[in-house]
């Protein structure tokens, strides 16, 4: 008998699950219906800052697989159709089409891939014209249309996280005066403050004004109703364009209404196979779920396309009759502002403390190539290791070309549960164009291993 | 009572050992005498191709620490002084100074860091003017002097390993017509033939003529006695300059004469602490030792500055009263020819076979950045995994910018003994400028994991 898979959300998690299930089960065996309330499927939200900045073309380039491509693979994709209710007891969802018509669709398997929604603080003016999000292709088009008007000179970016610093770069590339407003003391709050300060310094050298430690209170509008300034506790920042990069939260209203289990961050809680806990045929992946951090052993909300793709593939494999599990994450993230690369993995100090871990740290400066090789870029590497055990807990890197992806060394070491002593003699690739004879990560590992040893001696 | 440490060889292993021992023990406690037969200490041999190619300045830039700097740290460094005999029974070495005077020096600890010597096949003409090695600063100066003469148009590089391909790049940078002569079927014999073919194709596109599968028989000289052509079994290759990159072998004649234990490759055999086996106060590190390959569990000769530095540090720590061991290597190596990056770690197919391992492989093509991001460089990644266990055995990468250092992911995974299934969901850094949503290494891991699973099903 043919089963039916219903997918809510046409992006990375949902459509990867659908594609992978289809790969394993033909249409006679598995009917697939996918609901997407927007106009596009499978687009790279992470690419939007680069599209707005003009580094990449768009929006077509950002669409990994079009609606027609999905349909050609036997997926009944319904764009402009919003799911308004999940009824897990009867195994069905209610949807509303573009024409307003509602209907119920029953499922044998349900995949929830509803993603995340941008955080918009409820302050005056936040919804005014001239204030742009960076979440959807429509957001990107609206921001680009505003930039193309030509009378835009000053940009205020609200939020100093990944999207915020990437949008600061995008605005610089448009030749604008850029102010970054961030309620934290430093941009890149996913780094420790000492590493965030390096990012701040680099951004200031790029000409970005950083207004930190100040929450946004209001967006002032002009006589034409458009945003004209961002007001914080401390100052008023004139703006011809305002970009919001305040992060996202799991989009789980539907799931909450259906009584599905949510975690501390509002994300769906799943088992290792990505099945929603307490259910037997409801699955969830991507920005709407919480994931296990393998270092802190706690659930976290980490909205990243790479996790969504992996989780979608795992869900599709399981629905397809195979077996796959998601092991969890170690908190790796990389980004850049112009030539400044930023990377982190594992726990930062405050996260380690919150997890009840005690630790030592070490920070080193080194270069991406042999010091004598041209364009050897400086980088600062900070390593955090657990006291006594010497287990690596986290790695943070800020520097020039070749800095960011070095964090993968830490990501693998964290996954393997390595100690920093074990990392000291890792056989990493060495040649003058690619690394000093001691890779910067090894130098950091060595220094933090010395700190672990000194700490042990001190008792 | 003051002890005396004697070091033979003033390069990476020996001088790092000396410096590290000095850091831990002051001159009152440990006298350090270092013998170096050449004129320099602590220079980066790996940098010589880039100096000859004009990419880096030299030779000063290649000297990590000068003789005077070593002396300022209380090391009695004797340049131009060759050790001619080791007498382990009486704990002394005989040396001959520049003036020909010989003397015995007794030691409490001896470090052998005699490095490696270039392989020079005993064929006619091999020592003619116009034939250059790439091992010492003197080699580099001689080659550069020849290139500066201005009448040099055609270069023949003999040997297709790391030094060979790097010297091919150097010769291209001088605007020469370059022929690479290699007795193997492909350059880069440390890769599998299918991956070596990619290097060959790329080098041919750069304009390098590749004469493979042909051993060198003779170097012809002209009326002026200078090399004028390289003769192989198959052809005669006219040359205004001949560069030898035929690899090196451990320089262990002294050690052999002293009855110290050598392995199958002629390198000194040490214990984990880098003490020469069967001795209690003789240590060895760098290009003159064999190292344990953690994947094949056999000894190998891997002459690389990064190992020499690590081993020197370990020796110095142990002599200094601390405790450190060298865990072994996994066979990581990276290089490049112009924009083509080459990397490998672990075992290639023939090495795995020789170690008695059975395996499956998978090869994928992917990009260094999101496909839509500018300058996304193509790369080919080959992964080798053990049958049944699924343990990663090796990783090879050939591609554009961002390819080489990705091999570090494999190096850490090999060290940790990870299976390719464990690698599939590694939390690697993802952002459009740095990686596709699935890092190329993950794509390869996934494909080879599928191959492992299919192989298991097939029994």
UniProtKB/TrEMBL annotation, chains A, B:
Keyword entries, A-Z: FAD, Flavoprotein, Oxidoreductase, Redox-active center
Question: What InterPro entries does this protein map onto?
Answer: FAD-bd_OxRdtase, FAD/NAD-bd_sf, FAD/NAD-binding_dom, FAD/NAD-linked_Rdtase_dimer_sf, Pyr_nucl-diS_OxRdtase_dimer
Similarity comment: family membership:
Belongs to the class-III pyridine nucleotide-disulfide oxidoreductase family.
* UniProt name for this protein: FAD-dependent oxidoreductase
Which co-factor is required? FAD
Q: Which residues form the Pyridine nucleotide-disulphide oxidoreductase dimerisation domain?
A: 335-437
- Which residue ranges does the record assign to the FAD/NAD(P)-binding domain? 4-299
């Amino acid at each position: 008998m043919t089963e039916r898979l219903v997918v809510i959300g046409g992006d990375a998690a949902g459509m990867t699950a659908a594609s992978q299930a289809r790969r394993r089960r033909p249409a006679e065996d598995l009917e697939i219906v996918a609901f997407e309330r927007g106009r596009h499927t499978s687009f790279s939200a992470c690419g939007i800052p680069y599209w707005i900045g003009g580094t990449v073309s768009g929006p077509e380039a950002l669409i990994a697989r079009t609606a027609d491509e999905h349909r050609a693979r036997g997926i009944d994709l319904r764009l402009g159709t919003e799911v308004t209710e999940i009824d897990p007891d009867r195994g069905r969802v209610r949807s509303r089409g573009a024409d307003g018509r509602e209907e119920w669709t029953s499922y044998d398997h349900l995949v929830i891939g509803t993603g995340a929604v941008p955080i918009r603080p409820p302050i005056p003016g936040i919804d005014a014209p001239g204030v742009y999000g960076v979440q959807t292709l429509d957001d990107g088009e609206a921001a680009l249309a505003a930039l193309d008007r030509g009378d835009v000179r000053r940009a205020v970016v609200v939020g100093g996280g990944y999207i915020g610093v990437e949008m600061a770069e995008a605005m610089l590339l448009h030749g604008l005066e850029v102010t970054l407003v961030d309620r934290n003391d430093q941009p890149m709050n996913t780094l420790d403050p000492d590493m965030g300060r390096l990012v701040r310094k680099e951004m200031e050298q790029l000409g970005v004004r950083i207004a930190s430690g100040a929450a946004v209170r209001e967006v002032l509008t002009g006589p034409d109703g458009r945003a004209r300034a961002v007001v914080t506790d401390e100052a008023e920042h004139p703006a011809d364009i305002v970009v919001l990069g305040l992060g996202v939260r799991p989009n789980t209203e539907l799931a909450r209404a259906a009584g599905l289990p949510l975690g501390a961050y509002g994300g769906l809680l799943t088992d290792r196979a990505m099945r929603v806990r307490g259910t037997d045929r409801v699955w969830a992946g991507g920005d709407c779920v919480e994931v296990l951090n393998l270092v802190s052993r706690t659930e976290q909300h980490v909205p990243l396309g790479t996790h969504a793709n992996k989780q979608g593939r795992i869900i599709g494999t399981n629905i397809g009759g195979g077996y796959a599990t998601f092991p969890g994450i170690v908190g790796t993230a990389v980004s850049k502002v112009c030539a400044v690369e930023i990377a982190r993995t594992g726990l930062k100090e405050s996260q380690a403390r919150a997890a009840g871990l005690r630790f030592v740290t070490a920070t080193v400066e080194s270069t991406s190539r042999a010091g004598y090789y041209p364009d050897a870029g400086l980088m600062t590497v900070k390593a955090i290791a657990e006291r006594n055990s010497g287990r690596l807990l986290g790695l943070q890197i800020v520097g020039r070309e070749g800095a960011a992806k070095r964090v993968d060394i830490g990501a693998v070491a964290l996954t393997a549960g390595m100690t920093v002593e074990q990392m000291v003699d890792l056989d990493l690739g060495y040649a003058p164009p690619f690394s000093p004879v001691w890779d910067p990560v090894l130098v950091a590992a060595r220094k933090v291993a010395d700190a672990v040893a000194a700490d042990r001696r001190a008792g």
